[in-house]
Structures are given as structure tokens and as C-alpha cells.
């Protein structure tokens, strides 16, 4: 990227930072700024940039009175940013559609470069990637694993190369099983690329080489998916290993919360497996394990999951299945597997399995609760001679002593909904809520929603329990003020906090008039946010 274009980008960045510190700007001011950018572009011989600035001015005709936030203005100028970043060799190169495709992934954007990140988001509307942004390298190094990204893109400015936080971020990423990091810099010198690789980056790319950036990120994500698959796959049997179990439960618990559809967990154990190993050898035992794994995969649905739990034990998780349906499936599997022949080292073996079955109907219970119940049922099946299916005994009607122990916990349980389209914001606020709950010795249920419509359609909203609801001011599908108005009209017992980047006093007054309990502006002052949130949570007990 040549110096003139870099200087123009710096000028736009400075103006954006001023807009962030000011009240909302009007369309006339935005048009004047685009006009100034166009004149500068013409002077430095960038006619395509000047033409795009002129087109944006025409788009603003009739919108001179409209109020724009800094973020809205930034998104409006994404086409202009494309012209700036796609200069030189990339200016005439359209990124192939194949480069825009790829696996679903979570991308963490790090660094104080909102222009480049807005460009990246805007240039990839068809890629199934979810973006979250952290402007601070220090914050990214400290919290990257909370977000569980598939790739990190770091925009590195000149002063960042010597920042210890950059080295710390790359070092922490290297401690992960595999978490690729791509450094993007306007500095195209070879020495800077070498420095980036020496620090531990997986790729170091010039900001103007957009086609290379997209392809490299896509390929790194694909590589990570393959490596994750190896780590999560049992080497002997080819099915998932135990590490995958929490992921399955998280998905099925979400189905239960959203639609009320239970799932069933079955813990299977091969009968008399030790005798197989002792009599025919461990190679024969391995053949039996592979046979059972292949049989289960072949005779279960694509929505079901087969996991090797350890040794000769397997978990079969039947999605959106009632207990009676699961019982019928397992009985069929048990009968058919008993007729399967396993050939091992010249011997032909017939084996059976036993299973403990539990219906997972309560999303508030942890994974270990269901595993414990299934294990008890499996033990009962084994004690009864094996080659049978036993159902777990439900513990809702446990002893009176247990009920007394549980009651205080239920009364001390907080409930919080976070409604924000930014996944990273949801994650950070959820961590703060858990911290406050731990301080008070409380249990807490946290539900996260990408938009207001999904919140209204959720069991959380239908339950109407006393709760804290945290709303982003600007959301897709439904305006937060509209959602707030509906909550107050229906007299839902919610304490509502609104988060916003708008600092206009009129906007704040409008939200307060609609009934918001707390109003916090971005960027957050975390101590202030924590204090306000603590107050709302305490009011749930009033």
C-alpha cells in the first residue's frame, strides 16, 4: 500500500474516532466528509476512489437531516474502504467466488483498526463466518479462549510490532491444540514479515493483498477443522471420543430449551469383554470394539451421535427422541448386534451389549447428572445378567432430605438474558454475570440471543420469571426500544439494562421513558457496568 493511500486511511480513521466521541452526526456532515475524501483522492490520482466518494454523496441526497452514529457511518463507507484497500494489483482482481466459500467459523478480529475490520466484514457477506472484534491486544491475549475462535486476524500497526501484548497473544495461541493467527500490516517490508513469523504467526499478509488474506484464512480454518477432527476422533474405532461429549450436550440442551424436545442418552457396555481379551487376545478385542462402533454408526440416524466413552463403553445420544422411542431403538440395536459375527485372528465371535438409558428432559441439569443416572441403569442391566436395556430411575421425587437441600438453591438462582448480535459482547457479559453470582454464592441461568425476535420466541420469555434482561440498543430484526415497549406493555417482571454506542441525551431519555432500568454506553467502563449489573441482580431478591 503506497504512502498516499495509507495517509488517506489514517485521515478517515481520525475522523471516525472524532465521530465516536461526538453526539450523532447528520447526513450533511457525512456528505461533506465524503466530498473532502473525493477531492483528496483526485489530487493523488486515485480516480476510482474519488468516483466512489461521489456515488456515496449521491446516496445521501434526501438524508441530510438523518442522524448517524459513528458505527452506522463506518458501515456506509464500506464500498469506499474496498477501493482504498483493493488498490494496485488487487484493484482489478475480483475475488473468486470459490475463495468466498468455506466452513462455518468464528473469527476474532484484534487491533485498533475499525476501518480494516469494517472492510473485512463488508467484503465477505456470503461467507459463513461470525466476526467479533477486540480493539485491545492485551484484552485479546487474556480472553481469546473464552470466545473459542477458529482463527484470529490481528491488524498490526507500526507501534504494535514492539508491543509485548502481541507476543503474548501469539504465545497463548501457540499453547492451544491449534489456533491459527494471521497478522495483517500496511508495512510490506520483508523484515516485518520475518518478524511476524518469528513471533509465531501462521501468516503475515499485506493489508492490500485482500485476495491472499481471504484464501489463507479459509485454508487455515479448514486445517484447524481437520486437526480438531483428529483430536476429537477415537483412533481405534473412528467415532468421536469422550472430549466431544460436552459439545453434543450443549447442542441438545439448546434444542430442549428452544423447543422443549428431550433427547436420550444411552451408556452401552460390551458384555464379558474381559473374557474376549483373555481368551482371544487384545487384537480380537480391538476388532470387537471396531465392529460395535461401525454397527452403531450404520444403524443410527445422522442426527444421533456415537461416542467411545472409554474402554468397552460407548455413548449413543439420540436427538429429539422420547424415552419410549429410544427404548425401541436400543432394543432393536441389541437384538441385531447379538446376531453380528466378528472375525478376529481366525476366530468368529458373537458378542452382546447392555445399556443404561436416561431421558434428558431438564436443561438445568449438568452433563454429569445424566451420565450418573445412565451408569446406574447400566449397572442394573449388568447385575441382571447382561444383554438387556434398563431405564434410569428419575430422581425428581427423591428423599425429603434431598428436596430440602435443593430448595434453597432454587430460591437463590438468578436468571439473565443477554440479547446482542455481537457474540463476543455476549460472552464477556456472561462471564461478568457468573463472576457476580460466584461472589454471592448464587446459581445463575444465562440465556443468550442474537436478536429480539429469537428472544420473544424463546421459553425464557414465555416463562415470565423474575429476570434481568440486557439489551443491545441496535439489533437486527427488531429495534430494542420496540422490544422494551412490548416487555412493559405485557408487564413482564424483568429488570432491563440497555447497552448502546449512542450518547445522545435525547436517545437516553427516550429509553428511560420507555421503562429501561439501566442505560450503559459503549465503550464500556467495566467497573461501572459491573456496579449497575450488581444492583439489578440484587433487585431480583426484593
From TrEMBL:
4-aspartylphosphate: modified positions: 472
Leading EC class: transferase
Keyword terms of this UniProt record: Nucleotidyltransferase, Phosphoprotein, Transferase
Keyword Nucleotidyltransferase appears in the UniProt entry: yes
Single annotated GO MF: diguanylate cyclase activity
SUPFAM superfamilies from the UniProt entry: CheY-like (SSF52172), Nucleotide cyclase (SSF55073)
Lineage top rank: taxon: Bacteria
Keyword Transferase: yes
InterPro entries assigned: CheY-like_superfamily (IPR011006), Diguanylate_Cyclase (IPR050469), GGDEF_dom (IPR000160), Nucleotide_cyclase (IPR029787), Rev_trsase/Diguanyl_cyclase (IPR043128), Sig_transdc_resp-reg_receiver (IPR001789)
Domain annotation GGDEF: ranges: 261-394
Domain (Response regulatory) ranges: 106-222, 415-537
EC number per UniProt: 2.7.7.65
NCBIfam families in alphabetical order: GGDEF
The name this protein goes by in its record: Diguanylate cyclase
